Amino acid sequence: MREKNKNIGKTFQRLMAYILKTYKFHLIFVAVCIFVSVLANVQGTMFMQTLIDDFILPLLKAENPDFTDLMKEITRVACIYAVGILATYTYNRIMVNVTQGTLKNLRNSLFTKMESLPIKYFDTNAHGDIMSIYTNDIDTLRQMISQSMPQIFSSVITVVSVVVCMIALNIPLTVLTLVMVAIMLTATKKIAGQSGKYFVAQQQAIGAVNGYIEEMMEGQKVVKVFCHEEESIDKFNELNNKLFESADNANKFANILAPVTAQLGNISYVLCAIVGGIMAINGFAGLTLGSLASFLTFNKSFNMPINQVSQQLNAIVMAMAGAERIFNLLDETPEVDDGYVTLVNAKREGDKLVPCKERTGIWAWEHKHQNGDPTTYVELKGDVVFDDVDFGYNDEKIVLHSVDLYATPGQKIAFVGSTGAGKTTITNLINRFYDIQDGKIRYDGININKIKKADLRHSLGIVLQDTHLFTMSVRDNIRYGRLDATDEEVVAAAKLANADGFIRRLPEGYDTILTGDGANLSQGQRQLLAIARAAIADPPVLILDEATSSIDTRTEKLVQDGMDKLMAGRTTFVIAHRLSTIQNSDCIMVLEQGRIIERGNHEQLMEAKGKYYQLSAGK
Amino acid sequence: MLKTLGSQIKEFKKSSILTPVFMLLEVVMETMIPLMMASIIDKGIQVEGGNIRHICIMGAFMTVAAGIGLFAGIMGGKYGANASAGLARNLRKAMYENIQQFSFANIDKYSTAGLITRLTTDVTNVQNAYQMILRMCTRAPASLICAMVMAFVINAKLATIYLIAVILLGTVLMLIIRGATKHFTVGFKKYDSLNGSVQENVSAIRVVKAYVREEYETEKFTRESGTVADIFSKAECVLAFNAPAMQFTVYACILGISWLGAKMIVGSELTTGELMSLLTYCMNILMSLMMLSMVFVMVSMSVASGKRIAEVINETSDLQNPKEPVYEVENGSIEFQNVDFSYQDKGGDAVLKNINLSIHSGETIGIIGGTGSAKTSLVNLISRLYDVQKGAVLVGGRDVREYDMEALRNQVSVVLQKNTLFSGTILENLRWGNKEATQEECEHACRLACADEFIEKMPQKYNTYIEQGGSNVSGGQRQRLCIARALLKKPKILILDDSTSAVDMATDAKIRKAFAEEIPDTTKLIIAQRVSSVQNSDRILVMNEGEIAGFGTHEELLKHNEIYREVYESQTKGSGDFDEGKGEA
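ok -> structure tokens follow
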């Protein structure tokens, strides 16, 4: 518990530091405004005393009551009130900027950070959890910054200034009030503790019910097919009843909290009225009727901030849990990139390559040697070598064992093997989605660890098995491959990928906005777009993951055709499922359990009568 | 909507009525306290020499009032919690039970995600709103009215100031809410799309990274998040007037009452004590108003949720059991007579057109065809997952609409294309097919489905716990478990809808062989992408764009059917599919 509190404290400090970084002066100004606003309010209550003692009672006794002084006094108070109102508006207004600005900054930091994280992060964290940081956690934080923080601040100031005023008015009554406050706080704590216990139970019950609902709704059709409706209802009722019980209890205690503090407040008020009344009659401790009136008002205004703070504390604890998750994401280590070899446009001068600014269709690796040797330029050709590579997603479990591999420019390398054999893993190493444990991967003779990741990936085109499209027009989705591509180039790429035909039949053609990951397109059409996207990037090396999922034969032909056109003249690594692709490859790697067990072209492998032969014949 | 939701209060009527009653009592007690306070000041303190007896009597009354108020408040809180938690439970129950009656068409209409939201978030919204209505909606107006009445009783002239203040503040609050809601509506839409783009980036992170588009995406996001912040700022700037407007009204009232009150006291129209209670009521009245406006916003936000819930509760399944259902399915023969079928929610375009088909009991039928050729739609009619628009589907010689649905579905076992396992052990999952199945029967079914090999390799074998959605088994394993589950029904008709797509070819062949040998009397319909999966069937049905393009043996079709030949040739002489080979474990 203490550990947890410490964490909350740390997170809170960090959050404040984050806000203060940008909004230091804003917050100082807000604090001043809250201070002014509270003081204006307090002095208004003090005015009660003046009104009764200095004006009403003397005026009652006066022969010819003169109201001009009272008018003056009221005007003075009105002026202070006006300042108070202005201050209230000002701090509310500034807090809008602070809140929304902070949230915007946090969102942007989160997103920027997220984009920089290695693929591993996305493998190990549920996507739903990542999303909930952006939605739930940010939302609770908004409540805390915009409401809890100013409210707690103003409550504290109110309590302090009210206590000061009360002491000034009458000390015995102040003591009485504080005793009542202590009782109130103890009661609040007791009830809050009870309710907290039930809230945890409720949270668990909600989790159980929601989990069950999700699972059963996902499988609702299976439930129907197996006529499992009754069992499903029985189990649900059981969980639902449990949730009802814990929700009932949790809310009961939460609901009781408010009347208990309110009525204890009333009792405190009554006690002060009685004791104060008796004191006023006897003129004890210099208590006048006016000061009693003021005091009673203060007594009342004491309860509100205590109520508010106790409510806001819960909100803060919740917000801190969210803030902790936010900061955890912000603290993740981004992808390391120590590469210093960059990709530049180049042109040939004699037999030497020189860098240039314009796009020439020739690229070179600009290798600024660390030992001070003159910068060298190596032409980007697409020559990839794996030298005794070991890889595991973590150090304990190695999934690829001493992989050797060489692809000369323009070659087509096919990977075959069963699921889990490591085909996709190998391709993920070339573009450094993951870093290897041991061995070396060379690209045009350069260790890929020395190449800047961005430039390395620019030189590789990838068509993944699961196609992902973005919420934007078809045109922009294709252009994703190369942002400065012209409209003509987009169409040309679509034509190469055989996507032009169906795109033109879409309601808005190339300007059709795709939504929900291209939900309105068929699997095959989405794949065609992915091919077009790779085509427009025009990379020298391609990584293709052929889809296994079923496409109708006509589209399948188009996809096949598009892929073939894309592969022409490029070094290609293809995770192959189609016989034709495999047969046309220059080299086939047969993988099993993370090792290359056979290599060679189709004829050679068939002759060898090994695993490949078995797989091909084994229908 | 209100009627539907209201009818779900049921056993919580008592709580629902008692809550406002107790809230009212609490309010009345609270209103009385300032009144007695006035009496203490006027008759206890301000009289010559003071009247301690009166002070004590009034004090006792006040304590009693506070005590009753406390009791009422606690009871109100208790019953309020009970009523709202109870309503929530009943709503979930009513929805869940009705969803179990949904047909496939009903499920399609709402979508899985839609149903989940309704059962979770929407119910919570309504629960909170209901509690709010029961407690605050009585408390706030009652407190406002009580305080107002008291104020008028004490001094009608001064109380008029409050009336004006309430009207003024009320109007201003309404304007603020209106103005803010306008921006919030736009804002939340933008906010949704912002979160949508995060979602997109999370799932497509590999594409983003492969094309080195991190900066591009970040720029895009920053732009959008800027817009969101701007719109929300606009809305909250309007809301920022809330507190000062409230303060202005309260202060104006205090000053106005003080000025006029002082004059009246001097003119003996008012006592000091009365002035003080009037000032207390000022706070009561205006705070209640503020509360009311908050309740208004909260409740109006939950109306949409309430509507969505009512929709589900009121939805009637479009498939009803016949009045005198038949419980016995004679045999596994299937016949389609002039069947037309369309999905209503997809604009009613015919998916199946004039289908005539006759399958004998015990036959093995392969079904092949491109995506969208309506293979799945065709087989879904057999177990009456959907109803035909025209014509009839006959099973065992009877129209499927004459059977009891449960009886029919127990005899027609479908392995759906999108299949699901549930959290629980393998045995528990298998017993979905037959609750009473013995361990031996389960193992037998798994042998038929070639699932035994991998189950035996698992540490806890048949007691291995399957995670939600079957996430701890591979696609191929999941499919084989689903087939075993369907086999346990011992159905007369077994339908496999592309159920071996993730199973390697050798295993696929083994499963088919086991079917032929072990359950020869069961009619088997196998939808597949691979010709090799169907070419040994008794007959093969070739579907194309909702029509039967061919029906016959492999050899016949190769000779006479162009579509079949094309598919066959494109998958020539064995496939290059080495996926899901022996390495899978």
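Confidence is low (pLDDT under 50) at residues 573-585 of chain B.
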